[in-house]
Amino acid sequence: MISIHHQPQPTDLGDVRVANRALVLRHVRQHAPCSRADIAAHTGLNKATVSSLVTELIERRLLRETGLTENRVGRPATMLVLDGEPYAALGLQIGVDELVVVAVDLGGSRLLTWRRAFAAPSASPGETIRALATLARRAIGRVTGQGRTVLGLTVGVPGLVDPAGAVPLATALGWQDVTLAAELRAALRDPGFTVGVDTDANLAVLAEHRHGAYAGTADLVHLTGGAAVGAGVVTGGRLLRGARGFAGEFGHVTLDPAGPACACGGRGCLSALIGLPAVVRRLLPDSEQDGPVTDFLPELDRIQALARQDDPGVRTGLAEVGRHLGHGVSLLANLLNPEAVVVGGHLAALGSWVLPAARAELAARTLAPQAGGCRLDASTLGSTATALGGATAALATVEAGRLPTR
Amino acid sequence: MISIHHQPQPTDLGDVRVANRALVLRHVRQHAPCSRADIAAHTGLNKATVSSLVTELIERRLLRETGLTENRVGRPATMLVLDGEPYAALGLQIGVDELVVVAVDLGGSRLLTWRRAFAAPSASPGETIRALATLARRAIGRVTGQGRTVLGLTVGVPGLVDPAGAVPLATALGWQDVTLAAELRAALRDPGFTVGVDTDANLAVLAEHRHGAYAGTADLVHLTGGAAVGAGVVTGGRLLRGARGFAGEFGHVTLDPAGPACACGGRGCLSALIGLPAVVRRLLPDSEQDGPVTDFLPELDRIQALARQDDPGVRTGLAEVGRHLGHGVSLLANLLNPEAVVVGGHLAALGSWVLPAARAELAARTLAPQAGGCRLDASTLGSTATALGGATAALATVEAGRLPTR
């Protein structure tokens, strides 16, 4: 019933053209193939404006004509689709035991997905940044070799990220006050495109909102798996960032004050109960016989295999992980009332065994009937949602109507 | 860095006029006295449009000319202010031991604030609705007797409210599935204005956002005091409602699994630790000698008096309340990163003794440096913030540019 509006801002004509260009691009992205007349009818822009913008966007190869025409009353229309063939955007992801890079074209189609084994928690920030830069350079080389221009690159970090792209704290990596964006930009020798940093959860929810099973859902949360559990929150169709960009820190909510110790110094935090290292430690007590685990994929495979064999200890342990997950999600459901909470990483990989218990706990602990309608599901985007979201985020300036620099 | 935009909607000319009317009203509300030329310059509307809208708004007595002119280059200008003299909006509040009604004019100035002792938790929903209707009728009689037209009325409830104005659950009142808006509308014999229902926390944060010490803050939370603790959340300048309008349920987050039993069936919920009945029970063990407390104001006075006398038991108890409050607020600070959390009701009344411990706990438990910048303060709006917010909400249709029905 209430709405609190932003103060409207006066605009100049350049801004208006940028905004209209964004309208046209968005319409084509969502409704392609479509004609100039369709765009005019749906955006409210007049036909001359649409025609001028489309000409410019075709000339810059952001749109192209398909040559298709559609049967309709009146003249046949030339249909438009996104082109973006000459452009690419990159996303990087710092996982618990790997680095990932994804490149997409303007339409969001993947051009490449590369993984490189790398145990960031046991490396120094400098080593991690060098490894990121190496991986990024290879991906940049590949897409530029294909004749594409890179529009931007965004890195996802499991921790706090400030608006300048620095990381004040990432307990899962052991980082404190790392000026990641600046150092990565320097390592890439100030490339002619934006190098951004965001939390892995923000980028993952952006990927969900664009490409996931709940794409377009106005009230949506992505909970990351991995070493730290973070929340990316979309509310009312917009990413919730908070006053200083630190929103979404959810991994250290205390669920069990008598629970296991956490890297943050607390006890029984959500991450200490359901983070990947915690799950491996709890379900595979022999896993640390030869020192700390740095490569989690084989351990995750073992847990899945044991669960498929109905190993009672593993099944019981996974149900317990599910109850903790459901408890955590109930806090989000009570406070944010999202339409869906989507879990990623190992929580998605173990979803078949974890989610039933989690859903029961969610329903029991949420005050609104039927958990306020909140669905709880595994992400369909696999374990590279953050990198995909990073590439998606890197398209933002073009999608906002700014033309790429030539 | 990311922004996720709403799909732009096509508009018709009637909608455009409504939207422009809202722009003009908002500009005058925020910048009065101002001239037609000021409005045109700041809203980007052309002068003829502004002139036509202002004429209509003066004719409907939503604006008036002050007759003042301002010295400036060129012709002296006639200055405009909000009129709204012939209009009133009402807000009602169901507190733990009283009902409150507030009426405001279009500019948000209070016309009346009336309280009536009423122990809703020990009354039936039907009795409470009859008492609300009686109080509302008296207030309506007063403002219509002054020649004003009532634009709308909104009731704040400590519980869940669905979009139809029904209350699926309000544990603090013992309510379940109460069709409040419909029943109140019937009790008022279908008045010619909107009868709305919202959560007390949503209305309180609306009042804070308009009239409080943090007015205009884009990322703001109000935590209600009283029997139940609820959160009203403004994020990115907009009220966070969630998918089904159930957002802000924060009173039953478990802070201490070994803590006292809660009306919701759980243990150690935030409400069971820092709600008004819990605080009275904890600090004044003799208060329930003659049966359950139904009138909390004298008990609150006693606690304040003992705290002022440095009573060690009461001081220790209030610091403990503060630590639980700070723990709860740290969850909000980590997840939402608001600029400020403002507490109302008894938490504000006891703020001098509760807030220092709460702020220390908040800083210790929030991962971002300096609690992510989150301030924690007592509301300056007194104990009628919800009713004031209800009246403010009832102005929404006019503020959105719809003309009042004559």
Automatic annotation (TrEMBL), chains A, B:
- Which molecular-function annotations from GO does this UniProt entry contain? DNA-binding transcription factor activity; kinase activity
Domain of life of the organism encoding this protein:
Bacteria
Q: Does the keyword Glycoprotein apply?
A: no
Query: In which family does this protein belong, per the annotation?
Result: Belongs to the ROK (NagC/XylR) family.
- Pfam families given in the database record: MarR_2, ROK
Q: Which InterPro entries does the entry mention?
A: ATPase_NBD, HTH_MarR-typ, ROK, WH-like_DNA-bd_sf, WH_DNA-bd_sf
Answer whether the UniProt record assigns the keyword Transferase to this protein.
Answer: yes
Q: Tell me the keywords, alphabetical order.
A: Kinase, Transferase
Q: Which Gene3D superfamilies does the entry mention? A: 3.30.420.40, Winged helix-like DNA-binding domain superfamily/Winged helix DNA-binding domain (1.10.10.10)
This protein's name? Sugar kinase
Q: What PANTHER family does its record include?
A: BIFUNCTIONAL UDP-N-ACETYLGLUCOSAMINE 2-EPIMERASE_N-ACETYLMANNOSAMINE KINASE, ROK (REPRESSOR, ORF, KINASE) FAMILY
Please list the residue ranges annotated as the HTH marR-type domain.
22-65
